[in-house]
Specification:
Elements lengths: L2 H19 L3 E6 L8 E6 L5 E10 L2 H4 L9 E11 L2 E3 L18 E5 L2 E7 L4 E10 L4 E10 L7 E7 L17 E6 L4 E4 L8 E2 L8 E7 L3 E7 L2 H5 L1 E9 L12 E11 L5 E13 L2 H4 L9 H7 L3 E2 L2 E2 L3 H19 L2 H47 L4 H15 L9 H18 L23 E2 L6 E2 L1 H15 L7 H10 L2 H8 L5 H25 L14
Antiparallel strand pairs: 1-2, 2-3, 3-4, 5-10, 6-7, 7-8, 8-9, 9-18, 10-17, 11-12, 11-14, 13-16, 14-15, 15-18, 16-17, 19-20, 21-22
Length: about 550
């Protein structure tokens, strides 16, 4: 039986056994509440695994974060695996297991040590397996030491184990965010592979992983990551395979979770000689996915690949060219503005004003060209109508006559009439993408009722309908309808009907974006207000728009 098959067998067979055994755990706090990288965790004596973990520097809601009386239930639950995270299990192998007891089925000795927990399991024949969790606040996690010690045993050879990585809790979210939970493995050369949760709950190998170059692997949700990384070459070489397992949502939780993923680390331990020990060390990061946070870690660049993955805008299953660069640039600019203003909402407004202001000269030039084109078309319209009547029964002759007429009168729509909207679309897509996983906006207030820019603005709850009343998308709809209503309707019947239909488009967009993050809606409302002011300035300089010049697209 191959190592991969043994891992699959173990991952599928053991959870029910472990749950049936019950709990014998230790709940321990690490770091002062509210301090960076502080945790509350429960460890299991039965499996030497992590039962659950809460972040004491993050909270379930923005209200809890601002409360004077914080309870344990207010802390954000990051890990809660029924079959325990970071448990070490022995794999079956030909000729019998070298370790007489199975670490996944026998109770360990548990020792509460300073800043950590130590577990020990002796097989009674001279082999001792030890696992130690040591809190590392600067690295926002733990150092995990795995040791196989030979006291008196004559056994030699290698022993195969599997270490079950943590699966982050993945709360339900707006469908526009999508399910961003993935299992990821990144290499030191910058490449990475990832797998999303599978509906069939079937284990999947990370096929693109080059294990000798492994930098880290683990679980990721919208804002947070739980990543295991080798701390030396020997520990990296001990990892023989990586397999992704889909973890079903927790039962009986309201609101229900999404399914999530975790990585199973296949490992190979060489049995040392008498009086010797084999030791491997791994770091465990459990915290936000943010470049600002990563810069505070001992190795700032290690987890950057997960940000590259998150900032790649999805579009019908394909990547958007330049989207990652735009999203990264926007987040960097927002960070600069936030450092200056101290408020992410005002930073978004400032970004919007600067971008739209920089585009005003181009937009004005396009408006002027469209006006000139409309005026020319108004003068030529009678001749064009005559040609249409003259060649009403001969479409081919009409097309040839129109081509000659256009060449003679140099009739050509201004190239780039829609350029402003095409220039703002990458910004819109980039911001949309950045807000899917922008940890820096989590629980960040703007003002008034907007106390979390990463979620909808939620002015008040709707008692007769599940959900909340969100004001910002409605403001944007009203502004867009008002903007479109100010555009004169063309005299051409076909164009007139098309423009009337276009005026219903805001309703569709409003429904699509109703539950989206208030940060995006704040950008869109600010941009629409700018468009109204800009159109008033253009009208004052160039005069009223000609109905036959066509409607300029409104940048978002």
């Amino acid at each position: 039986m191959s190592n991969l098959l043994r891992i699959l067998f173990l991952a599928l067979a053991l959870p029910s056994l472990l749950v049936a055994q019950g709990e014998a755990g230790l709940i321990k706090s690490f770091g002062e509440p509210g301090t960076t990288g502080s945790f509350e965790a429960c460890f299991s004596k039965l499996t030497a695994g992590l039962v659950w973990l809460k972040a004491k520097d993050h909270f379930v809601t923005a209200e809890a974060a601002n409360s004077d009386e914080v309870k344990s239930s207010d802390y954000l639950l990051l890990i809660d695996n029924s079959d325990h995270a970071l448990r070490l299990a022995q794999l079956p192998q030909a000729g019998g297991a070298l370790f007489a007891k199975n670490p996944a089925q026998d109770s360990w000795e548990m020792q509460d040590i300073r800043d950590g927990v130590r577990f020990t399991l002796a097989d009674g024949k001279g082999l001792v397996l030890e696992k130690e969790f040591l809190y590392d606040q600067q690295a926002r996690g733990f150092t995990i030491t795995l040791t196989l010690r030979n006291e008196t045993s004559e056994v030699r050879g290698n022993q195969a184990f599997v270490l079950l990585g943590p699966a982050l809790v993945s709360p339900k979210q707006s469908s526009l965010f999508g399910d961003v939970s993935v299992a990821i493995a990144a290499m030191t050369d910058g490449e990475f592979d990832q797998k999303s949760p599978s509906a069939e709950f079937v284990n999947q190998p990370l096929t693109e992983v080059k294990l000798p170059l492994l930098s880290f692997a683990g679980s990721s949700n919208r804002f947070f990551g739980a990543f295991l990384y080798p701390q030396d070459d020997e520990s990296r070489a001990a990892i023989t395979s990586l397999t992704v397992q889909t973890v079903p949502p927790r039962a009986g939780v309201e609101p229900p979770d999404n399914s999530t993923t975790r990585v199973l680390f296949g490992m190979q331990f060489g049995v040392p000689g008498k009086g010797q020990a084999t030791t491997f060390k791994y770091g465990l990061y459990i915290g936000p996915k943010s470049n600002r946070v990563f810069q505070t870690l001992p190795e700032p660049e290690r987890f950057v690949p997960i940000l590259d993955h998150d900032l790649e805008p999805p579009c019908c299953g394909m990547s958007v060219p330049g989207g990652r660069f735009m999203a990264t640039t926007l987040l960097s600019l927002l960070g600069v503005f936030y450092d200056f203003l101290g408020n992410w909402g005002f930073a978004i407004i400032l970004l919007t004003v600067l971008v739209r202001g920089a585009m005003f000269p181009l937009n004005f030039k396009m408006q002027k060209s469209m006006r000139a084109y409309g005026a020319k078309m108004s003068k030529l319209k009678p001749k064009m109508d005559e040609m249409k009547k003259k060649y009403a029964d001969d479409q081919k002759a009409y097309q040839q006559a129109m081509m000659a007429f256009n060449r003679e009168n140099k009739v050509m729509p201004p190239i780039g009439g829609c350029l402003p909207i095409f220039l703002t679309m990458p910004i819109y897509i980039g911001l949309f993408t950045a807000l899917r996983t922008a940890y820096d906006l989590r629980h960040e207030p703007f003002f008034g009722w907007i106390n979390d820019l990463s979620s909808s603005d939620q002015l008040f709850e709707l008692g007769f309908w599940p959900g909340d009343f969100n004001l910002l998308p409605l403001i944007w709809i009203v502004l867009l309808v008002f903007q479109m209503a100010r555009q004169p309707l063309p005299t051409d019947p076909q164009q007139r009907q098309t423009q009337k239909i276009m005026r219903f488009m805001p309703m569709m967009f409003g429904v699509m974006l109703y539950s989206y993050a208030s940060a995006l809606l704040l950008y869109m409302v600010t941009s629409m207000l700018w468009s109204l002011v800009e159109s008033a300035i253009v009208k004052k300089i160039l005069g009223p728009a000609d109905p036959n010049s066509g409607m300029m697209p409104t940048p978002m």
